[in-house]
Amino acid sequence: MQLEFSGAIWFWKGPAPWYFVTVPDAEYVQLKAAVRLVTYGWGMIPVRAWIGDTEWKTSLFPKDGRYIVPVKTSVRKPLKLEEGDIVTLRLELNL
Fold first, then answer.
1. Does pTM surpass 0.85?
2. pLDDT per position as a tens digit, 61-74
3. What is d(CA 36, CA 74) in angstroms, rounded to the nearest whole number?
4. What is the CATH number of the domain that holds 12?
């Protein structure tokens, strides 16, 4: 399963600060249908993610009835991405 969507990068400054993009509603519905096939612990979904040609492995986190995509520092820094920037993400789930 592959998904592509755009969203704003936002910052969570909890005990372990991190940057995320929230999966939009339409794509969330598709993920929810697949979650029982691919999830591991706490409803997390392993994916390959891309912003442009930059690829990384991560897991989608469930949060507030949606999923969020962590955007690693090793991805953000070379692409000069900051909080509030709009990015297009491509995700691939192995079902």
1. yes
2. 888 989 999 999 99
3. 30
4. 2.40.30
